[in-house]
User: What shape does this take?
Amino acid sequence: MNFSIITAVYNNRENIADALESVRSQTYPDIEHIIVDGDSNDGTLDILLPQGLCRGRQDMDDRMIIVSEKDNGIYDAINKGIKMATGDIIGLLHSDDLFADEFVLSKVLENFQQKSVDAVYGDLVYVHSSDINKVIRYWKSGEYNPKKMKYGWMPPHPALFVKRDIYEKYGLYDTSLKIASDYEMILRLFWKHKISTAYLPKIITKMRWGGASNKSFANLLTKSKEDYVALKKNDLPLPCFTLALKNIRKIPQFIRNKYI
Assistant: This one.
């Protein structure tokens, strides 16, 4: 089995090199790294293009594939990456993020092989944007139970790995949702289609604080509206109840980080 890791990026010259090195440093060697750039104009491409295969050039690292063109947002970029992917397992590493250590993909693969599942997920920490060793929030997933989804549970999207044939079977990300398409995908796979999963009790990803959903009150409001749409679309009973608990569940994550 092999991996396709998809990195969506737009104007992130400051951090993209860290994401590239995080993938490159993995001890598991069979990795296809697909970078989907939204036509950056801040110098991001100056970092990307010398390192990966782009538009047919064969003198570069053929394990890193780069596409740079305008897109319709992060989920459109992810969908492009999934369509290009050839790996058995697809994972996402956004341009602000890092794998927690060099053994992440080896451990993920071990779980896929031992448990014969459709998806593997783990834990995530949000870290300070300028100090990745300073943890702000610790998202400990825990074992999955379908009933948990009624009470607002979800695994952290950047710590989720899914077999490519599952996306082929159940579809790509809903680009009509600008912030909550990841939640809709998780509801679709875990709740609606009941894919088989395994929990890896390990911090998978370090995510720099300041993502799209928590940048402003307006974004938080949009996120809640889109979460409600995702819940309704996937036939969750009592969506308002689930949405309220989903937000409440985040509170302990800010306390738990003190005990890592």
Summary: Strands lie at 3-9, 31-37, 52-54, 61-68, 89-92, 97-99, 119-128, 131-139, 160-163, 197-208. Residues 217-233 form the longest helix (17 residues).
